[in-house]
Structure formats: C-alpha cells, structure tokens
Design a protein that fits this description.
43% of the residues lie in helices and 19% in strands. The chain has 12 helices and 14 strands. Strands 7-6-8-9-10-13-14 form a 7-stranded mixed sheet, with helices on both faces. Strand 6 (167-172), helix 6 and strand 7 (195-201) form a beta-alpha-beta unit. Helix 3 runs parallel beside helix 4, helix 8 runs parallel beside helix 9 and helix 11 packs across helix 12.
C-alpha cells in the first residue's frame, strides 16, 4: 500500500511539472514566432504602434520565465490596406516558425486576410476587428477578444436616446468597420423611434468635410454619429464647430484615442466614444500592465487596443506552452480556453467571438477622455 501511495505521489508531481513547462514536441532551444499585423505606418499608425507595444510586453514576459524555447514577435505592417493585409498574410503562412497571428486592427484587413490563414490552418486572434462578418465566415481558426459592432453600435444608440437625443446625422467612412458600426447604430436608433436625418459616406484620406457639414447643419441634428477612425473623425469635429455646428460628435472605439483629441483640439470637448470592455485602470489585473507599459514606453500614450493585444498575444503563448506547435491543436486549445487576463475573462462562443461584451461610454472633458455617466 505504501509503494502504491508513493507511486501516486510521484506521478502527481510529474504531471504538475509537465503542466508548468513547455510541451516536449516543442524542440528545446526553438524560436517560436507570434505574428502581429496592423498599421505601423500611415494615418492610424499610432494605434498600430500601440498594439505592437502590447505584444512586445507579452513576448518579453514569456521569455523571462521560459528556458526551453524563445518567443519572437514578427511584426508586419498592413497599412490599414486590405491588399497589404493579404500580402502580409501570405508572408506569414510561408514562415513555418509562426504559431499564430495577432491581428489585424481593421476589419477591412482582417476579413480578407483570415481566408489566407484559414487555408493554412493557422490560428488568428484579432484584438480589435469588430465587424460581425469576420466570424460569420465559418472559419474555425478565427477568434477575437473584442466584441462586435452590433453590440457597440446598439449600445451607443441606446445611450444617446436615453439622453433625449431624438435627431441625428450619421457619417461613415465606407469601410467594413465604419459603415458596419454606423448601420448598427442607425438600426437600433430607428427602432427606438429616433430620427436619422441623413446617412452619408466619406472616403478614407479625405480632409475637407465642410460642404457635407454645411448640408448637415441645415438639418439641425442634435448629434453627429460617426463610424470610422480618429483621423477623419477629429477633422469632422473640428470643422463642424468652425461652421457653427456646435453639436457633439459621437463615435466608436475608432476615435477613442488621445490622437483624436489632438486633431480636433478644443472642438472635441463634449464629444463621446464607446469603447469595448471596462476602463483598464479599473481592472485590478491591469494595474501591473499599465505600470510596465509606462516604464517601457515612457514617451508613448497607451492606445485603446494595447491591453487587448497584450492579452491576445498571451492567449497564443499559453496555447503553445500547453499544446506545442501543432496548428490544429492550438486552434482547439484556444476554442476552449478560459483565460483570466487584464481585460477580464476571455472565452469564445461557437463562432469565435468573445463572450465578454461589456461596453463603456466616454466623453472628452478638459482635454481628456473620461467615463460618461
């Protein structure tokens, strides 16, 4: 009986040891790459560079605790351009050392690139692409840690309607993200019996919106809802006030960044944005991350998707540590993961969407984004 007990104890110790280390099908000394793809140059490079910071921190922390293997970040620039995104995806799948993809930022990039990753059975986890179509393609290798436009757009519509906003002008940037978000806002707002005075599209890269804003001014909206990114959104807010259209601009996570306030200046006071999840500084587990971020990148402002990219990178690292480099097993592991990170608990539904669907509304006050009541 004593021999049997000793055998059981030894076995438990061995199991415990294996679960804390790296699976043996990962060759010792091996370099395992995690790809990150986002806009590192161009108009919204600030968000992409922030995502790179989040991924870098996750990789560095993993390498501090592991001796068997070394994780390496492969960061590629898709320039927020779908064609560049597909080119980057083809480069990634040709590298046999890449075990997973973190990205992309823009839904317009994620959707076409996901087909490339799917053909090569490579896991893709986006921390920032919110268009519902991404996970409606039937791909089993695609996940995201952010919630979707239908949740965010309807939240914003409900939020402003409860503030007695009954007439809105909607502008979008014609991208899968911006237009998708605007359509979800429009649908919910009209269901609430709010009045949509116009639904206008602009083009990415446009800089002069005065003709459109003069037309909108004549409609007397109570707010402008904008589906798009901070570059165009900031200019619309600024030019609207210059024309005497003194109503708040309300947008989604694409404008929730200090870069928006820098572009719009004082015109941004009172503007609002919805952002997925809870404020990082309100989450106990995020405090350590925020301190490390400030120490590592003292001259950079944290961007909205940096914490999400940090957790997303760690989810792929966690899968490799527990499963090894088998692509199919990594996908299965992430499909069933229950990851307690700095953005809260991440689990995925059958499509690959996160079950964490919390949204927070912020407004610009005294030159800073602050939680709206």
């Amino acid at each position: 009986m004593r021999k049997i007990l000793c055998f059981v104890l030894i076995s438990l110790v061995c199991v415990s040891f294996v679960s804390c280390g790296v699976k043996k099908d990962v060759k010792e000394g091996k370099v395992v790459k995690v790809a990150l793809v986002c806009p590192l140059t161009g108009d919204i490079a600030a968000m992409g560079q922030g995502m790179k910071n989040g991924a870098t921190l996750a990789i560095e922390e993993a390498n501090q605790t592991l001796k068997e293997i070394k994780f390496e970040l492969l960061a590629l620039d898709d320039r927020a351009d779908p064609k560049e995104a597909v080119n980057a995806a083809n480069q990634i799948v040709s590298d046999k050392d890449v075990c997973g993809v973190v990205g992309h930022l823009n839904s317009g990039c994620s959707i076409p690139a996901s087909a490339v990753y799917n053909r090569h059975n490579l896991v893709m986890v986006s921390p920032a692409s919110t268009n519902p179509k991404l996970t409606q393609q039937g791909f089993t290798n695609v996940f995201r840690t952010c919630t979707t436009d239908d949740v965010q757009g309807s939240f914003a519509a409900d939020f402003v309607y409860k503030k007695e906003i009954k007439g809105v002008a909607i502008i979008h940037d014609k991208t899968p993200y911006g237009q998708g978000l605007a359509e979800e806002f429009q649908k919910t707002f009209q269901n609430l019996r709010g009045k949509v005075l116009c639904f206008e599209g602009i083009s990415l890269g446009d800089r002069d919106f005065k003709a459109l804003l003069i037309k909108i001014k004549g409609l007397n909206p109570q707010i402008i809802y904008f589906g798009g990114m901070y570059q165009e959104g900031g200019l619309i807010s600024k030019q609207a006030k210059e024309l005497g259209l003194n109503v708040p601009l309300v947008g989604g996570d694409g404008i929730y960044t200090g870069e928006y306030i820098k572009i719009a200046g004082k015109s941004s006071e009172g503007d609002m944005a919805t952002m997925i999840g809870s404020p990082p500084d309100k989450l106990p587990k995020a405090k350590d991350f925020i301190e490390k971020y400030k120490t590592k990148f003292p001259d950079m402002d944290m961007q909205p998707y940096d914490p999400y990219t940090y957790d997303t990178t760690n989810i792929i690292i966690e899968a490799v540590k527990n499963i090894g480099q088998d692509k199919g097993k990594i996908i299965d592991y992430i499909k069933n993961i229950k990851y307690d990170g700095i953005i809260g608990e991440t689990r995925f539904d059958e499509k690959g969407d996160t079950l964490n669907k919390e949204i927070t509304c912020y407004s610009v006050k005294d030159g800073k984004w602050q939680i709206s009541e």
